[in-house]
Specification:
Layout: H1 2-6, H2 16-23, H3 27-38, H4 42-61, H5 65-71, H6 77-88, H7 108-120
Helix pairs in contact: 4-5, 5-6
């Protein structure tokens, strides 16, 4: 499925309907299959695929987060940054400073412990993550 999607990666209008049509399934059938196989909704699958591809691009090409956002099909750099931060646990601008060979998505437990540590140190923490 990702080969079909890759050709539409930079199209911010490519969504659930387009993916379902390109794989020859109805929206609901595609949703059921993705939910069963991966445990995610179709829109979440598309968003996470774009975020993973953005991480690769940011690591390899050293472009700005804004450029990466538009190259992987996010219509808004702000929404991209928010989604990236929620998914990986740090903002996309930090990718070039990270030396991790494998960067994994943040878990709810990681976010909760980060908030707890930040509150312990007296820092204000946003609960919007």
């Amino acid at each position: 499925m990702s080969l079909r999607y890759e050709s539409n990666l930079n199209n911010d209008q490519f969504g659930v309907d387009s993916l379902a049509q390109s794989v020859g399934m109805s929206r609901s059938n595609l949703h059921r299959k993705l939910q069963k196989a991966l445990g995610v909704s179709t829109s979440q699958f598309i968003r996470e695929y774009r975020l993973k591809r953005a991480l690769e691009i940011l690591k390899q090409e050293g472009i700005t987060a804004s450029e990466a956002a538009y190259r992987v099909g996010f219509g808004s750099a702000t929404y991209f940054s928010t989604s990236f931060h929620k998914f990986y646990g740090y903002p996309p601008g930090e990718v070039k400073y990270r030396t991790d060979d494998v960067i994994t998505p943040a878990t709810n437990q990681d976010i909760a412990s980060e908030k707890k540590e930040s509150q312990k140190n007296g820092n204000l923490v946003s609960t919007s993550r």
